[in-house]
Design a protein that fits this description.
The chain has 293 residues and is mainly alpha-helical. It contains ten helices and three strands. It is globular, with a radius of gyration of 52 Å. The N and C termini lie far apart (187 Å).
Length: 293
Amino acid sequence: MKPKAPTQPTPRARTGKAQVQASVVASGTRKTGQAAAKAAAKVAAKPSAKASPNPAKPAKPANPAKPATQPSPDASGEASKNLTDRAYAVVRRLILERELTGGEVLVEGRLAERLQMSRTPLREALLRLEGEGLLVRANARSYAVRRITASHYFQCLQVRERLESQAVSLAIGHVPAELVQRLRADILSLDSSQQGSSHWHADDEIHGLFARASGNAMLAETIAHLRVLCRLFEVVDPFNRIEEDRAEHLAILNAYIAGDARLAEEAVIAHLRNLARYTLSRLSNGLVTDFPS
């Protein structure tokens, strides 16, 4: 018996089988592609192991250069005021210490060079001194140191008698005892060999102290102005009466310390009248050139 030959698949069968195989391959390909895509997505979603957890911050831009600071108007005004005050203090001291004498003409430009000051603050200082009566206008560009005549001097002393005697009476009990004692010690320690700045300082202290303590600002201001006028006359012809002034000033202070207003008033009046008599005797003897007219 002859063996049967293997059955050959029909063309339709072969076609169907091929279709099935292609379908399977396509399906597998699709699944493989989907899996690969998912894996790639997971990889992309994970941060790189090498990446720094704190990424570097962008560099800040360099600070632009700040413009130069300009002085404020207030600062400039304050500086100008300080220069004016300094010029005022210097010129006033020169007048009261006789370095600028009565009648001397002050030309703004020359004075600025002499004192090594700017003209603007000096000009303002000279205006203030004119207002206080220390200077008088000589012409449009200059001033002159005021010269006090003897007649003006005696008139000032008469007014001072009334005002300063009232001031010391009003000041009773208003000046601390230790301040009065310190002033008393200063007067006792004055050098009697010359009438210098220490004498004028003590004189200003004792006459100004009670005026300021009187409680009347106008009274104190008027006394201060009259004293400046008297000083202009005395500076031209210094009197050198240290010992007399010392004794008379101590009498005023002792009366004040005792709380005796009447005695303090009398001591002030006696002091100013003694000064007037001394000046008159110098005028009569030709020791002071500016005789009252």
